[in-house]
Design a protein that fits this description.
6 strands; globular; single chain; alpha+beta
């Protein structure tokens, strides 16, 4: 199944980026976050931009719905996925740290609920949920500073639970989402998974 999905995602990356940039501020979806534009580091640091719009998510849903109904249900509730990974170096580290602080402050001011705040082993992870007045999830945003390695800004628009991030990353082949999903898991869930692995 991975081999069926991967070419579609890689092959439409340029289109996805253009489609996302075409959305003006007045057309922002509920649950969508404007992180701004990012530039690649000047050295050999990592730089990844992933923009998956509704059309591509719908296609991925159709590809998996027969064999993986749970994954199809997850994908069916989404409208947009954006992930930016930027390698940190001496020239951009301070600016990206400042950007991360601003994003976090803006999300809090706009009523996003911070559900994960973890600082350990050089990682600084924050995960936020946006909900409407009926309690329906509209979007999820994550900001990660991974020591001296890279910064990650991720936004999933639509109904998704933090513990589903790893599955979403797996189905769309977006490794940073898998990592954020692992960080966002509740301690009891991690213990259960560890027990299963040891059986």
């Amino acid at each position: 199944m991975k081999n069926r999905l991967k070419p579609w995602i890689i092959g439409t990356a340029t289109f996805c980026a253009a489609a996302t940039l075409a959305l003006g501020a007045e057309q922002m979806l509920p649950g969508q976050v404007d992180f701004g534009d990012f530039s690649p580091p000047k050295g050999e640091g990592e730089f990844v931009e992933v923009n998956v719009p509704t059309g591509l998510i719908t296609l991925a849903t159709r590809l998996v719905e027969k064999d993986e109904p749970e994954a199809a249900k997850l994908l069916g509730g989404l409208k947009l996925v954006r992930v930016n990974v930027i390698g940190l170096d001496e020239e951009n580290r301070a600016e990206l740290q400042k950007r991360a602080q601003k994003v976090r402050k803006d999300l809090a001011a706009k009523g996003w609920e911070r559900i994960v705040s973890a600082q350990q082993k050089g990682q600084d992870v924050s995960v936020y949920l946006k909900m409407d007045n009926k309690g329906t999830v509209q979007g999820l945003a994550a900001v990660v500073l991974d020591g001296k390695e890279h910064a990650v800004f991720a936004n999933v628009v639509g109904e998704i639970k933090p513990e589903q991030l790893a599955m979403l990353g797996e189905k769309l082949h977006i490794d940073p989402l898998k990592e954020i999903g692992a960080s966002a898991q509740k301690p009891e869930n991690k213990s259960k998974e560890k027990e299963k692995a040891e059986e």
